[in-house]
Design a protein that fits this description.
The complex is a heterodimer of chains A (279) and B (295). Chain A is mainly α. Chain A contains 13 helices and no strands. Chain A folds into 2 domains: 29 residues; 217 residues, MetI-like (MetI-like fold, Orthogonal Bundle). Chain A is flat. With 295 residues, chain B is mainly alpha-helical. Chain B has one domain: MetI-like fold, CATH 1.10.3720.10. Chain B has 15 helices and 2 strands. A two-stranded antiparallel ribbon of chain B has the order 1-2. Classes of the chains: A mainly alpha (279), B mainly alpha (295). At the A-B interface, α1, α4, α5, α6 and α7 of A face α1, α2, α5, α6 and α7 of B.
């Protein structure tokens, strides 16, 4: 009995040690880039990566923000992300409601279209959507990105919200119907309030996805002044080839919004991830 | 369920009214373009003048293009790494953290924190670690006297692809962990306990009791990992642009370069059709799993 207990104790300690070791390894890229961005390039060149910082400098952050133009790119990311998020969430509640609360011919086909579309390698959309935005006259504008993000994310949002709405008992909406509510009232007054927790989860996840997009910005924008921070950072990389302190400082600044969302809304973020996979 | 009763209760057009706008947008921006790519892949198009039909010429050319095969191979290498290392590590972490150990919340948060970073940010901070003259890896190797192992991690043809995939794995492990932690919620603790009482050791009970119950989640994890591998673009674009000598080229980057740098858009469309066809196998598989649960 004694040995079983000590064995268990040892294995527990062993797991703990491994976990701590793992976390330390996992955090290295964060820690080292934070350390790098507070130093000057000359200092690293002279004393090497592993030397201890001699001074604490904000110059790299200032350079990334001002000359690297993050002061323009970061707001652009919000201008693109927020409307896309609001639109795709609103529209997907409509389609999710239809697919969850009605039985009609073709329902499974439409559900399949949304679910299948969400898994597409979006490379297959690049060229036609590039052409489409030209035809709509919105190429190289925020609207091009808002359009594709809203549309492409409809697949995932519809899928997840529909799965959530299915779990709301039909008796709820049927009772409302007998009380004389019409379809739209059932959607807006009965179902929507119940879906808010799921929407919070989806919104958190979608925010980071849209905010972190790179390829669509690359394809649908030409003007530098419209670029979101991902594309802007890639530009910065070309601009400051030799000065890594500015690049890591810029990368950290660019990561702040999603890190804040993650820290503040962690619970929703995880819910969103698992909701998308549970069914 | 009162199916017939329900049918009478509402206007048969109601679901279509709700669907109209989102479905229209989806068809115009996603499904339509997808189909249009098939047409584009049969054309010669420089992005400026109108596409002109040339039949299957692009595909013929594709099968003579060594870069296509390198990219295809790299995508499969990516898949092979992605459905093994992050899945094993993520599952191990989920098993370790699926109990009341002190600080498990912090461990979880730290392990999946890379997930919230954009791939561009990940690519940039790792490029710095890989930097041949001043980066962390070579500095550490030199500090411990292994300078002969110091590499140009992203410029050496042997190590470049692995170095890029490492970053993707670093970001993916936490995601898999979260999915398995969710999956573990549905594992019946009584079955696990019963197997232990029956004399199974921890490992046996993991293999024979827990793993089979995690199977649906494993299917999801593997399919997601494959789809993500086929979508891979950002890291390669930021870290290597496909080089050195196309050693890190994947289909998505190959397609981007041909279409938007070389203006061979019909050719690019053909590449993306191939990419789509490979994905389709897994999408259909996934749809069947999802839809089976539906009915």
């Amino acid at each position: 009995m004694q040995s079983v207990r000590t064995n268990r104790h040892i294995s527990k300690i062993l797991i703990y040690v491994l976990l701590i070791l793992g976390v330390v390894i996992w955090m290295i890229p964060f820690i080292t880039s934070i350390m790098t961005s507070f130093r000057s390039n000359d200092e690293i060149m002279t004393y090497g990566f592993l030397s201890l910082p001699k001074t604490l400098k904000f110059d790299s952050f200032v350079a990334a923000w001002q000359r690297g133009n993050l002061k323009q790119y970061l707001p652009n990311s919000f201008i693109i992300t927020v409307p896309s998020l609001v639109l795709t969430l609103f529209l997907s509640t409509l389609s999710a409601f239809a697919l969850a609360k009605y039985k009609f011919k073709g329902r499974n086909v439409i559900l399949g279209i949304f679910v299948g579309g969400m898994m597409l390698p979006f490379q297959i959309l690049l060229l036609p959507v590039f052409r489409l935005t030209e035809a709509f006259g919105i190429y190289d504008s925020y609207w091009a990105l808002i359009g594709i993000h809203t549309a492409f994310q409809l697949g995932f949002c519809t899928f997840v919200l529909r799965n959530y709405m299915v779990t709301i008992p039909d008796s709820v909406s049927e009772a409302a119907r007998i009380d004389g509510c019409n379809d739209f009232t059932i959607y807006s007054k009965i179902i929507m309030p119940l879906v808010i927790p799921a929407m919070a989860a989806v919104a958190t996840l979608e925010f980071t996805w849209i905010f972190n997009d790179y390829i669509w910005a690359l394809i649908l924008l030409r003007s530098e002044k419209l670029m979101p921070v991902t594309a802007g950072l890639a530009k910065l990389q070309g601009q400051y080839v030799m000065d890594w302190t500015v690049i890591t400082a810029g990368a950290l600044l660019a990561a702040i919004p999603t890190i804040i969302i993650f820290v503040a809304l962690q619970r929703y973020f995880i819910q969103g991830l698992t909701m998308g996979s549970n069914k | 369920m009162g199916k017939t009763k329900k049918a009478k209760l509402y206007n048969p057009w109601a679901p279509w009214l709700f669907l109209a706008v989102p479905l229209l947008i989806y068809l115009v921006w996603v499904i339509g373009p997808m189909l249009y790519t098939f047409f584009l892949s049969l054309t010669k198009w420089d992005g400026l003048s109108a596409p002109s039909f040339i039949g299957i010429k692009n595909y013929r050319k594709l099968f003579d293009d060594p870069v296509f095969f390198i990219s295809l191979k790299n995508n499969f290498v990516w898949i092979a790494f992605f459905i093994t290392i992050p899945v094993i590590l993520g599952l191990a972490l989920a098993m370790a953290l699926n109990r009341d150990i002190r600080g498990s919340k912090i461990f979880k948060a730290l392990f999946y924190s890379p997930m919230v970073l954009s791939l561009v940010v990940c690519g940039l901070i790792w490029s710095w670690l890989y930097n041949p003259t001043q980066g962390l890896f070579n500095a550490v190797l030199e500090a411990v006297g292994l300078e002969h192992m110091a590499q140009g991690w992203l410029s050496d043809p042997t190590y470049a692809l692995g170095s890029v995939i490492t970053v993707a794995i670093w970001r993916q492990v936490g995601y898999v962990m979260i999915l398995y932690l969710a999956g573990l919620q549905s594992v019946d603790p009584f079955l696990v306990e019963a197997s232990l009482i029956d004399g199974a050791n921890k490992w046996q009970s993991f293999v024979h009791v827990i793993l089979p119950q995690l199977r649906p989640m494993t299917v999801v994890v593997v399919v997601i990992s494959i789809i993500d591998s086929l979508r891979a673009f950002d890291l390669v674009s930021v870290m290597t642009r496909g080089g050195p000598y196309n050693r890190t080229s994947v289909l998505a980057n190959f397609m981007y370069i041909e279409s938007f740098n070389n203006y061979k858009m019909g050719y690019g469309a053909a590449i993306s059709v191939i990419l789509f066809m490979i994905s389709l196998i897994f999408i259909i598989f996934y749809l069947r799993v999802v839809m089976q649960e539906e009915n």
